[in-house]
Amino acid sequence: MKYAYYPGCSAESTARDQYTSIIAVARALGITLVEPEGWTCCGSTPAHQVNHDLAVALSVANLQKVKELGLDMVVSCASCYSRMKAANHAVTADPETRKKTAEITGKDYDGSVRVRHFIEVILEDMGLTKFKKSLTGSLNGMKVASYYGCLLVRPNEITGFDDPENPVYMDKLVKAMGGESLDWPHKTECCGAALTLTKPEIVVKLSGSIVGMAEGYGAECLAVACPMCQINLDMRQIDIKSQTGKDYKMPVMYITQLMGLCLGISKNDLGLGRLINSPEKIMAGVVSHA
Q: Is residue 176 part of a domain?
C-alpha cells in the first residue's frame, strides 16, 4: 500500500502531533507514504473567499505533483482534504476553470487524482479485519465520542466522505480498537473553525456546546480528524472554564493517536505531550493484548 502523502501547512506547526501520529501509524501498518517534493499550501480556508481561480490553482499545483507520481493522494487535514476535493470538482465540472487553472499553473490538469483521507485508506483499502490483526492493545470499553466536524462530510456531493448526516467511519475504528463508540447528536456540529482568531466568543460557545454534549453522553475523550477542530475543542476549554465555570478537562485526541496507542506506539512518537488536556487517563486505559 503506497500513497502520496500531502501533509499540509498545519503539519509543520499547530498539528505537528497529527503529523507525527499518522507517520507512526502508517509505518506500523506497513503503509508507505511518499511526500510530494516541493508541495505548497492548498489555500485552506481563506483563499477561496478571496479569489476562486487562484484558490483552485493552489490545490491543483499539488495535485499535479501527485499525478506525476501515479499515486492516490492521502491527506490527514480535513481542510486540505476539502480543498483538494473542491479543486478536482471545479476543473472537471467547469471547462473555463480548468483553462484558467492551466494558465496559472503552466500545465493542464484533468481532475483525475484520487484524493483520500487517511481514515478512508484504513477502512476501504486495508479493511477492518487486517487492521484489527495489527493491534497490540485495546481501548477496553473506553467511551469515545467521534467528532467529524464540517469539512470532511460537507458538501457531500464534493467530498463523498461517508454519510453527511451520520458519519460512522471513525466510529468503526473505535469499535475495532475495542472502544465504545457513542451515538451522540453533535458529531457534525461546527466548532467555529477559523473564527477562533476573529470571533473567539463564537468559538467558545460552539466548542463548549460540543464538549458539553460529549461529556453528557459519558465520553471519556473526543476523537477528531481535523487540526482546526482539535485546536478549538482542546485549547478553548480554558476559555470555556473562565467564561462559564465549566471545567471539562476532556482529552481531544486525533483518531490516529488512539490508533497508535492500540498499536503500541510511544507517547512521544504520537505527539501526545502536545495536547492541552491531559491524555494520561486515556493512555492508562489502553490494555495490552500481551
A: yes
pTM strictly above 0.85: yes
| pLDDT given at position 47 | 72
Span 5-58, pLDDT tens digits: 999 999 989 999 999 999 999 999 999 999 999 999 999 877 777 899 999 999
Parallel, antiparallel, or unpaired for β 73-75 and 2-6?
Answer: parallel
| 71: containing domain | 2-117
The order of strands in the sheet holding 252-254 is: 180-181, 143-146, 221-224, 252-254
Is residue 168 classed exposed, middle or buried when 0-12, 13-18 and 19+ CB atoms within 10 A define those classes?
middle
Tell me, yes or no, whether 113 and 135 share the same domain. Answer: no
The full DSSP string for 8-61 is -GGGGTTTHHHHHHHHHHHHHHT-EEEPPTT-----HHHHHHH-HHHHHHHHHH
Burial label, 46 (beta-carbon count in 10 A; 0-12, 13-18, 19+): exposed
CA distances from 256 to 77, 188, 263, 270 (A): 12, 19, 10, 8
Burial class (CB in 10 A: 0-12, 13-18, 19+), 193: buried
Name the 3-class secondary structure at 69.
helix
Are 86 and 187 contained in the same domain? no
Residue ranges of the alpha helices (H) in the chain? 16-29, 44-50, 52-69, 78-93, 95-105, 118-120, 128-134, 156-159, 169-176, 195-198, 200-216, 227-235, 237-244, 255-262, 267-270, 280-285
β-strand partners of 149: none
